[in-house]
Structure formats: structure tokens, C-alpha cells
């Protein structure tokens, strides 16, 4: 019997699910090996339980946590799809401010009525990665995910294998593409500590790596810092630039240092 | 008639983002009908504060996976306006090409994958793979070409890499552009075949009209997508910098929803609005297909938005071919790089994205750090119009079975191709007691 796969989305741009639609003819190959039982963005039907849940998006409010916990119970394997599910997405940056401050900035006229924990759609909005709420079995990183990598992961899961996600830095793939190092032309790049698997797509097209796939497991941060210092970037800018997709790590560090102080 | 009808569609399918439809009727009259949004707020306008100008288009493209190129372009135009950053004619033409790629991708995704199942009476495109494989293959071919365009111009299909303030980090070669031109030329017959199938099934689209205002970019020179003034079926063109006087975001007393309105109780944006304002400037083949579908300005049937999208796909193919010719005739300069200095200021950028007119408005300090942002999203602007359409449409359905009423209301919302994740400050919260 074909494994049952369900797709779900929380706070996100739904661009990762779009990469699945972007598989074009290969979607037909995909539905030959798995049985898609839920995919709200493209289909009306939905059925439970499922073998694999692919979840896109960050988790924002209690109603979202409740829904994710239900999905977790229905799924044998839960996969975080993309940077929002993996790291909380760019919207994780909003956690720099309190929920009230964010609501006031975005909804200046309506905030006093909206800021009410009685309203489930606006109850304590804070963006979390999936693993801050439930157990995550595997991650397909990236903003957006790489569709070829997605197929590799599905194929591994269908065959009972561990998905092949690289654990070396983007620089490896960048060198392989014979790109000129962006630091040498005065640009900033997260390549030395960011997880590869994207084919160094941004540096290859002349733009810097923003580490949307997160850090490698054991990033050599000191080496990265000295590289950046060599090119005239100060610690403040380094720390600031690290946060576009990295605010989750920042929160974890803060939590750790708080605990150490106590 | 004492029939009671209760409809509650939670998390409407085959739309982008999370929305609910609620309807209650008793004794042949509607008690309430609501289009609700349950999407979580992501606070883009709050958390871009403090970010440097060159990050803005990369961050705000993440507002929407389907129209990330349009968001990036509106963002760059706002930044360029704020800092007086010049762009070359070549950059403008290449950006227009990128925008066509995205409009084609989004339109065919909507018409082919999300709306076609309603026309064929199935729940998704998946059953169509076995029941109508030839049509599905043609739709895939149209979708693939659109994505190839985005890949070539932007480095990838979603969340563009190469679009940067003042220009591009990399542009295609002459050979690649010529290859794209031949792919575009070859796709025209496929376009017409798909349009023929849609035409054969177009009678499934409900015949419903409600007069409203239509708003979209307009220009004397072309069917405006990348640039222009704010056009309306009710008023003369308005300068983009005055967008706040057009969108007039407001909060309604009995709900927390932000609505938009201009000259009437609501207005519509998107392919149908653009068609209604700019139909004269379509390329010939697009005009021919509009005529075949009986689409004439001003068309007040929101379901015809699906057809306007198909017509725009054809137009984008024709216009892209013309753009490639113009770029190559002018002589491709691959060494061109942006030149500018950082300065403080405020700027507004407007672009037509698949679902309608999009505004980004940023203020920067003298270090190029964003201090204030406002993004007005097409779906946001359509919400009020969806609600008014629903109020007018629902009473005409009451004598039908509940499932059919539900399907018709779903089809109405889907016709707008709503992009709910986009709606960064788009609220409609209602409670059922």
C-alpha cells in the first residue's frame, strides 16, 4: 500500500508547497508512489490518519499549537517543510517586540479592540518553529525548499531510509560552482556557516547567502567572525546580519545565558 | 418557505491562505453571510523596522510565495523612489519580463489547477490527471514555461535572487533570451488549445453581476503592469504617491476587519479590473480571446476574473516576445551594475501583481535603515468587494441544495484568487455564538 502523505500550512507564504506544484510532470510520478490525503492549497478532500505529515509555516497562536498537536498525533512521521517550520521564518524577527507593540505598529487604529486574548485569532501572537511545540522527525530546510531535495527526501522516507540533508557549509557547493568568493568583491555572505543543499543558488546568481537553511550542526563561528573582521565588518553588523533567518538561534542563546545567570 | 440553511466552510480549499465562509439563512432570507480570515498575523510592517534597505525586498518577497517577484519589485521601486536611485531602460524591460513570468505562473496555477476542478466537477486536479490527461499536460506546459522565465530572470521561481536596488545582480545572456523567445513562440498554440477547453466549459461559471468600481495601474503607452498611475473605472488617473487617498483603509464598527473603499462601498482589483480599465492596450491575440469569451469592458461579473486571467496569460506571452526583441535590439549590456548612494527619505512603489495593484511604502533614515513601512495588498483591497458580492449573490442561491450553495460561494471567493497569507494587516474576525 502506498504511504499516506498529508500537507499542512501555518504562518507562511505557502511558497514551499508551491515548489511541489512546481514539480510539474514529476507530480504525477510523486502521486504514483504516495497517496496524497490532504493538501488544502490544491485539493478539497482531507482524510486521517496519515503516515507522513509535511508541515509548512511557523506556529503563532494557541489555536495553531492545538492544530499542530492534533496533526502530530495523526502522523507517524512529521517533517518540517521550509524555513518557517524549521526556524520560525523571517516573521520570527517580530519576536524582538512584544505582541502588543507589533499589533500597535501594524494595526494602529484597531489595536485596542484586537489586543484581547478572548479573540482566538489574535491571542498572544508569537512566532515559533515547529520543534518548539512538538517533536519534529525531519527537516527539509530552505526559503523556499529546493524541489529536487524534496523529492529525494520523499523517496528516502518511502523506502524507510533517513533523508539525505547535507551537513556541510554552502561554501563547499559555491566552490564547486567555481564562483568568485563574494567577500573578495566586498559583499557579505553567510556561506561559511550556513547549511548547504541549495547548490549555493544565491552566490551563484551574484547575491549573498542569507543562511535560510540554518547553520550546519557544528558551525565554526569564530572562523566566520575572523573572516568578517578581515573584510572590515564589525561585530555589531555581524550580529545584526545574522538575524534575517537566524532569530531562533539568537533566542536560544539568550535563553541559555539567562539560565546560566540563574 | 421555511428552509434553514447553515453553511460553515472552515479553511476554504484551493486558495492561498486560511479563510472561512459562514452563511445562515432562515425562511428564505439571509441572516448573515461572512467571509472570514483566520490567518495568523506575521507583522511584516513591524519587523522590517531596523533592517537595512538592501534586505527589504528579500524580506518582503516572503510575504507571498505565489507573487514574490511582484512584492520584490514593489519593494525595490519604493526603495528606489525613497533614495532617488536611477534604473536603466534595460533594467525596466528585464523587470517587466520577470513580472510577466510571475503573472503567467500565477494565472495558470489558478485557472488550471485551482478553478478547473470546479468546471469539471471534481475536488482537485489529481483526478483530472487520469480523466483528462492531455489537458493537464498542456496546463503543465504553460506552467513550466512561466517558471522557466522566472528561473532565468530571477535565479529561481520563488523569492527572487537577482533583483536588487538599482538593477540586477545577474542578467541572462543573449542566447538564453533567444531561447526563451522561441519557447514563448512555440507555446502560443498550446495557450489556444487550453483556452478552447476552458471556453467549452465556461458555461459552468455562474452568471452573476454586481456593479462596482475597478482599480488598477494605467498608462497611455501599454497595458500597465510594472508602472503607471492609479486608474479607476470611476475617476481620472491618480498619482501613485497619493495611494492612501485611494485605498482608504478603515475599520468597521461591528467587526475588526480592515476594509478598503474609494468612490463606492467597495472596489475590485486584479485581472478583471486591469482588463476593465486597459482592455484597449492588450496585444491582438489576447484581444481575440477576450472577444471569443464575450469579455467586454466594463464587465461586472466577478467570475469572469478567471477568464481575464487567461486573456492576460496570452497577452503576457505576446508582450514578452516584444520585450525580448526590444532588449536585444537595444544591445544587451551584461556588465551594467547599479550605481547609487544611500540617502534618507520616503518612497512609494506600486506594481500590478497577479491579484491586483500592490503598494509598498517605506521611510528610511540617513543610514538606509527602514523606520516605517506600509504594504497594501491586493487581497486586502478585494475583501470588502468579496463581502458585498457574497451579500448580493447568496440570496439568488437560496432555492438550491445546501451543497450547491456552498460550492457557488466557494467558487465566488476562488474567482478572486485570494492570497490570504499576503494580507499582512487584513482582519475579519467574527464570532459565532
Give a structural overview.
The complex is a heterodimer of chains A (262) and B (433). With 262 residues, chain A is α/β, with parallel strands linked by helices. Chain A folds into two domains: 4-89 and 127-158, Rossmann fold (3-Layer(aba) Sandwich), CATH 3.40.50; 170-261, no CATH class. Helix content of chain A is 39%, strand content 11%. Chain A contains twelve helices and five strands. In chain A, strands 2-1-3-4-5 form a five-stranded parallel β-sheet. With 433 residues, chain B is α+β, with helices and mostly antiparallel strands. Chain B has 13 helices and 13 strands. Chain B has helices spanning 44-47, 53-60, 68-83, 89-120, 126-131, 133-154, 174-201, 244-247, 271-278, 284-292, 305-330, 378-393, 402-415, and strands at 4-9, 19-26, 29-37, 163-164, 167-168, 213-218, 229-232, 250-251, 258-259, 267-268, 345-353, 356-364, 370-376. In chain B, helix 4 (89-120) packs antiparallel against helix 11 (305-330) and helix 7 runs antiparallel to helix 11. Chain B is globular, with a radius of gyration of 21 Å. Chain B starts with a strand and ends in an 18-residue tail after the last helix. Classes of the chains: A alpha/beta (262), B alpha+beta (433). At the A-B interface, helix 1, helix 5 and helix 9 of A face helix 1, helix 2, helix 4 and helix 6 of B.
Amino acid at each position: 500500500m502506498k504511504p499516506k502523505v498529508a500537507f499542512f500550512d501555518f504562518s507562511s507564504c505557502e511558497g514551499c508547497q508551491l515548489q511541489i506544484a512546481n514539480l510539474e510532470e514529476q507530480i504525477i510520478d510523486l502521486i504514483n508512489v504516495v497517496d496524497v490525503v490532504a493538501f488544502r492549497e490544491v485539493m478539497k478532500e482531507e482524510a486521517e490518519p496519515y503516515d507522513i505529515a509535511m508541515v509548512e509555516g511557523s506556529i503563532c497562536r494557541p489555536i495553531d499549537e492545538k492544530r499542530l498537536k492534533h496533526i502530530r498525533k495523526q502522523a507517524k512521521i512529521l517533517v518540517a517543510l521550509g524555513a518557517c517550520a524549521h526556524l520560525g521564518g523571517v516573521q520570527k524577527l517580530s519576536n524582538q517586540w512584544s505582541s502588543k507593540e507589533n499589533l500597535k505598529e501594524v494595526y494602529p487604529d484597531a489595536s485596542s479592540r484586537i489586543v484581547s486574548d478572548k479573540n482566538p485569532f489574535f491571542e498572544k501572537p508569537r512566532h515559533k518553529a515547529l520543534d518548539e511545540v512538538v517533536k519534529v522527525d525531519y527537516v527539509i530546510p530552505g526559503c523556499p525548499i529546493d524541489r529536487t531535495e524534496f523529492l529525494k527526501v520523499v523517496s528516502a522516507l518511502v523506502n524507510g531510509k533517513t533523508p539525505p540533508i547535507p551537513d556541510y557549509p554552502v561554501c563547499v557547493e559555491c566552490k564547486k560552482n567555481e564562483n568568485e568568493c563574494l567577500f573578495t568583491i566586498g559583499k557579505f555572505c553567510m556561506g561559511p556557516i550556513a547549511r548547504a543543499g541549495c547548490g549555493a543558488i544565491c552566490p551563484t546568481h551574484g547575491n549573498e547567502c542569507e543562511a535560510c537553511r540554518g547553520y550546519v550542526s557544528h558551525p565554526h563561528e569564530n572562523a566566520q567572525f575572523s573572516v568578517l573582521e578581515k573584510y572590515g565588518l564589525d561585530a555589531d553588523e555581524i550580529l545584526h546580519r545574522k538575524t534575517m533567518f537566524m532569530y531562533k538561534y539568537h533566542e536560544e542563546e539568550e535563553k541559555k545565558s539567562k539560565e546560566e545567570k540563574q | 418557505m421555511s428552509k434553514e440553511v447553515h453553511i460553515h466552510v472552515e479553511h476554504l480549499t484551493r486558495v492561498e491562505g486560511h479563510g472561512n465562509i459562514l452563511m445562515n439563512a432562515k425562511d428564505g432570507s439571509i441572516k448573515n453571510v461572512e467571509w472570514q480570515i483566520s490567518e495568523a498575523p506575521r507583522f511584516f510592517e513591524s519587523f522590517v523596522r531596523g533592517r537595512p534597505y538592501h534586505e527589504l525586498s528579500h524580506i518582503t518577497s516572503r510575504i507571498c510565495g505565489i507573487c514574490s517577484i511582484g512584492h520584490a519589485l514593489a519593494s525595490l521601486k519604493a526603495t528606489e523612489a525613497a533614495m532617488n536611485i536611477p534604473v536603466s531602460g534595460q533594467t525596466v524591460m528585464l523587470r517587466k519580463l520577470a513580472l510577466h513570468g510571475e503573472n503567467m505562473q500565477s494565472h495558470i496555477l489558478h485557472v488550471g489547477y485551482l478553478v478547473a476542478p470546479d468546471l469539471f466537477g471534481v475536488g482537485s486536479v489529481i483526478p483530472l490527471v487520469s480523466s483528462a490527461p492531455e489537458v493537464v499536460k498542456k496546463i503543465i506546459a504553460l506552467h513550466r514555461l512561466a517558471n522557466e522565465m522566472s528561473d532565468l530572470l530571477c535565479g529561481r521561481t520563488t523569492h527572487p535572487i537577482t533583483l536588487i536596488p538599482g538593477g540586477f545582480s545577474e542578467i541572462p545572456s543573449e542566447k538564453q533570451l533567444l531561447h526563451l523567445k522561441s519557447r514563448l513562440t512555440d507555446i502560443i498554440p498550446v495557450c489556444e488549445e487550453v483556452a478552447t477547453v476552458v471556453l467549452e466549459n465556461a458555461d459552468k461559471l455562474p452568471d452573476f453581476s454586481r456593479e462596482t468600481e475597478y482599480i488598477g495601474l494605467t498608462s497611455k503607452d501599454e497595458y500597465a503592469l510594472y508602472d503607471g498611475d492609479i486608474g479607476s473605472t470611476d475617476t481620472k488617473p491618480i498619482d501613485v504617491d497619493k495611494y492612501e487617498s485611494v485605498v482608504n483603509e478603515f475599520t468597521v464598527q461591528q467587526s475588526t476587519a480592515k476594509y478598503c473603499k474609494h468612490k463606492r462601498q467597495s472596489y475590485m482589483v486584479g485581472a478583471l479590473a486591469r482588463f476593465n480599465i486597459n482592455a484597449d492596450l492588450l496585444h491582438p491575440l489576447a484581444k481575440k480571446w477576450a472577444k471569443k469569451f464575450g469579455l467586454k469592458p466594463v464587465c461586472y461579473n466577478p467570475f469572469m476574473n478567471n477568464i481575464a486571467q487567461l486573456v492576460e496569460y496570452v497577452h503576457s506571452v505576446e508582450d514578452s516576445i516584444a520585450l525580448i526583441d526590444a532588449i536585444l535590439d537595444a544591445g544587451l549590456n551584461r556588465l551594467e551594475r547599479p550605481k547609487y548612494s544611500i540617502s534618507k527619505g520616503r518612497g512609494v512603489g506600486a506594481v500590478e501583481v497577479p491579484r491586483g495593484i500592490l503598494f509598498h511604502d517605506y521611510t528610511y533614515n540617513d543610514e538606509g535603515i527602514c523606520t516605517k513601512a506600509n504594504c497594501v495588498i491586493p487581497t486586502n483591497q478585494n475583501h470588502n468587494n468579496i463581502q458585498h458580492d457574497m451579500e448580493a449573490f447568496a440570496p439568488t442561491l437560496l432555492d438550491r441544495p445546501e451543497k450547491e450553495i456552498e460550492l457557488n460561494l466557494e467558487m465566488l471567493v476562488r474567482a478572486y484568487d485570494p492570497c490570504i497569507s499576503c494580507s499582512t494587516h487584513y482582519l475579519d474576525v467574527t464570532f459565532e455564538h
